[in-house]
Every structure is written in C-alpha cells, then in structure tokens.
Amino acid sequence: xxxxxxxxxxxxxxxxxxxxxxxxxxxxxxxxxxxxxxxxxxxxxxxxxxxxxxxxxxxxxxxxxxxxxxxxxxxxxxxxxxxxxxxxxxxxxxxxxxxxxxxxxxxxxxxxxxxxxxxxxxxxxxxxxxxxxxxxxxxxxxxxxxxxxxxxxxxxxxxxxxxxxxxxxxxxxxxxxxxxxxxxxxxxxxxxxxxxxxxxxxxxxxxxxxxxxxxxxxxxxxxxxxxxxxxxxxxxxxxxxxxxxxxxxxxxxxxxxxxxxxxxxxxxxxxxxxxxxxxxxxxxxxxxxxxxxxxxxxxxxxxxxxxxxxxxxxxxxxxxxx
Length: 322
Prior knowledge:
Structural class: mainly beta
CATH architecture: 6 Propeller
Largest sheet: 4 strands, antiparallel
Oligomer: single chain
Strand content: 35-45%
Number of helices: 2
CATH class: Mainly Beta
CATH superfamily: TolB, C-terminal domain
Number of strands: 26
C-alpha cells in the first residue's frame, strides 16, 4: 500500500498507543491524558477521563468489557498494574501486586475468548529504557483466571502485546527488544509452555502491537522502522506499510547494538506520515479497515485491506458512546 493512501480520523489525542474497534464502527483509544477517547464513526470524539485526581492514570494497553468498562494497563513511571475505568470516569483497582510485590509499569492487557486475562510487563528495570537491550530478558506475562493471578511466563525480551489464537491453544507475544515474535502453548492449567520463536525481525523492526487475520496471518506494528508487516502462516514476511527513515534506523541500530539505546531515541521515531506506529486493530463493517495506534501522533491513520481480521472478544460489545 502506498503511504499517500492513508486516511485519518480524530485529532488532539495524547499518545494513542492502543486501539479497540467494535462492529458498530466505534473506536476506543488509550489516551495519556488519563483515560480512553471514544471516536464515533463520523469522527466525533470524547475523552472518558479518570476522575481520580489523586492518581495520574497513564493508559497503555486497554480492553473493552461487556459492561462498558475498560481494563487499563497503567504505564506509570515506577509502578503499574491493572485498573478498571467506568464510563462515568470512576476508577477501580483490579490488580496491583503479583507474588506479593508491586507490579512494575504495565504494557498490555488482553481477555481471550474463554475469559482468561493476560497481562504483559515489559521489564522489571526502572526506568523502562534500561530494558531497551537485546541481552535483557526480565519481562513476564501474568495470567488471571478462576484460580487467581500468577506469573505464567518469565525471562522474556521486553514483553509487549500478546494475543490468544481463536482456538485458545496458543498465546502469541511480541518481545520488542529481542526482536522476536514468540508463541506459547497454553496448558490445561493455563500455564504457558514450550516457547517457540516464530520470527526474528530485521534491522529497525522492533515488534510492538499485533493483530490476527482470518487467513492465519499475524500483523505486526514495528516501532523504530515505523513499519507495518504481515507474517503469514508459512512465516513469510510481507511489508504492508512503510514510513521508515534508513538514516534514523542506522543511527538507532548503532546505539542499540552498543546497549546504549534510551528514552531520547524513542522521541525521534515519527515518520513523515506515521508517527511511530505501535498497534493496530481491524475494524469496519467487514473487518477490512486497519486502524493504527501510535506513540507520537495526535490522530489515527487507517486504510482498507483485502483481508479480514479475526474478531476479538469485544467485537460485538456496544461500549460507551458519546
């Protein structure tokens, strides 16, 4: 797809990193102003902001629940956890500790088709930029089910977005700074086992967000390269959208290989059209519209594709409206 074919919706967003799309055409986007922005099909938007003035909510990953509330992965400076945001702005604590310790800044939260919740923590290091290294593996995945919350997988390379396949058999996860797309088998007790690296990405391709399509493909948003790629069921890569800057990639790859990449490098990743894409969601009436979240932009780019996405558990939820 040509970069000039992109369209845009909404505006004045603050770090719209994660997108939830529903069958009624509505979008819900994480917003660093402290909540979730609702975007109607006509582009009208409204921020549902936390009313808790004593707590600075920093949403990263979000998911829509059937009752119209949102589970939010909190990306605090030193602390994380999962919170529930209600349509009226009230905020509840959901999970702040694991194994009797405060959960570090939290990246993503996903509920699968059978109701299990999966949470990713990229690194235990603080600030998180200390984990921007290919030799650091202290990320982990939390599973929450009827038995409670526990660490289901550990020692991962900057754990980012994760998804469970429609059969409920496998969990896919992006490990950003080891540049790996990994897959776990989900055991009968919901343990994660037999990790397998399905794909190791090229220069500048640091995998962040993901989505599944109905043809067995996995779509990956790559920060740094500012590139959207698709890994098909034969593990072959296709570049779908590319707004990369080869000189910037070379510069960041150089400091990355030296173990010197830090937060300052993340602030220069926006391209001429895409502003450091970090996630994607299939939407539209036939699930052939791709919406892309980003770290540095103020609006949501989208385009049409020929492949339908795989519906997520919240696809037919009504959700809050304006």
